[in-house]
Each structure stands twice: as C-alpha cells, then as structure tokens.
Amino acid sequence: xxxxxxxAPSHVAIIMDGNGRWAKARKRPRVFGxxxxxxxxxxxxxxxxxxxxxxxxxxxFSTENWRRPASEVSVLMELMGKALREYVPKLIxxxxxxxxxxxxEGLSQTLCAQIDAAEEKTAQGQKMRLVLALxxxxxxxxxxxxxxxxxxxxxxxxxxELDEAAFxxxxxxxxxxxxxxxxxTSGEQRISNFLLWELAYAELYFTDTLWPDFDAxxxxxxFAAYHARERRFGCxxxxxx
Length: 241
Ligand code: IPE
Ligand code: IPE
Ligand code: MG
Hints:
Layout: E1 11-15, H1 19-25, H2 30-51, E2 55-62, H3 70-94, E3 96-101, H4 109-122, E4 128-136, H5 138-152, H6 156-160, H7 164-168, E5 181-184, E6 203-206, H8 216-227
Parallel strand pairs: 1-2, 1-5, 2-4, 3-4, 5-6
The structure holds 3-methylbut-3-enyl trihydrogen diphosphate (IPE) (2 copies) and magnesium ion (MG).
Residues 16-21, 61, 65, 76, 186, 211 line the site of one 3-methylbut-3-enyl trihydrogen diphosphate.
C-alpha cells in the first residue's frame, strides 16, 4: 500500500507528458522516454484499478502531435500498436475494458485492426473503463458532434428541445462521464486541447513528475490534493451540491 488510503475520484484523466525531457536528462533519444513511458502507463492502470477508479482516460497522442518529426510519430504509432497487443491479457486479468477515442484518419489499417481487436477482447471488463485518447483533440470531438448533429437532420421542434445532455450524445464518446480529476505531469500547466467538454468542472492537478517516473505514490498524492479541494459547482461554500 502506497500512501494513505483515499477514496478514488470516479473519472481520472491524465495528460501523460514529459517523456522527451526524461530521455534528454539521461542523454538518450526522445523515443527512449516514450518506451519508458509505457511502464508508467502500466503502473497508472494498476494503481487506478486498485484504488477503485471507474474511468481512466489517458491522453496518448493528440491531433497536434502529427506536427512532430515523422520519425518520432512513426515510433509512437509502432509503440501504440505493440502496447495494445501486449496489454490485452493484462487488461482482461484486471477486469479493464479498453476503448480508444480519436479519429481513425491517419492511423494505419494495422493499428486500426489492433484497436478493434483490443476493444473487442476486453469489452467484458467490469472493474474499470480505460479510455485511450489516440489521435484525439477536444476541438476534433466538438466538431464531430456538430457534424453528427447536422447529419441527424432533426426537425425544428426536436432541435429546439435539444438540451446540453442531449447534445453530448452526439460527441464521439457520448457516455464519457465528466472528469473529476485531471492530472498533468511534467510541470506544464495547460489543457493542450484535451477533453474540453468533459473537463468543464474537473479539478486540475499539476505535478513536476515526468511521465516515465509516474507511480502509485504520484497518483495517491493527486488524490489527496483532490480530496482537499471543495467542489462547489457554482454553489456557495458548504451549500449542498
Ligand atoms: C508525452 O511526452 C508523450 C506525447 C505527447 C506523445 P512528450 O513527448 O511531450 O515529452 P516532452 O514534453 O517533450 O518532455
Ligand atoms: C499533450 O502533450 C498531448 C499528449 C500527452 C498526448 P504535448 O507535449 O503534445 O503538449 P504541448 O504541445 O506541450 O502542449
Ligand atoms: Mg510534451
């Protein structure tokens, strides 16, 4: 057991950042950091399952990350496919259902097939939902929702009655609950186009820990900080939420 036991937030989202700097500090190429980051992904999944998190959303590759050198992008894509294949037995063991969230455009057919296979094989997982944001951006998701809505050709009355919850059903991942806690590693304090809709009332936690060093202790520190916050959702302090 690492740290004091704390009740886990229901939906934890993580911007896994700092792989490149971790490698640089060791005078190694950036991809060395991405490989090391993979073990941190393992640790974060295990620690979240153990803590009783319901949904863990990990930001693995943003639509903006295509702007990186092609050599780095291709290693990232290779690592992603390899990880998807290798994670499956562990995810099944841990009762984790994997879902990938992001655009398929730009991904290779092989990677798309690996995604489909991993989703299918883990679909029965009951303990935790693991959402891997891959080729994802918040603007992409909101734009998709607008396109989906336009394609639905709702009549004027239905459109007039469309509330925010009904709108959210047009997002690419309609049933993703609101994020309770967003963790970003590596000291950067920005959202970088992550879950813009779902982050609306998330508590934000920034740590200087670089992603490859992330472990259960980092997670528990984040949970402790989360529990020290007062979530008000627009109410006054101490009013019932
Ligand atoms: C996060 O680490 C991994 C991805 C964004 C794919 P970075 O590669 O961004 O590492 P830094 O920020 O350059 O250290
Ligand atoms: C955000 O990290 C994307 C992922 C972690 C996948 P970046 O390293 O790409 O973010 P910026 O460019 O520093 O904002
Ligand atoms: Mg970065």
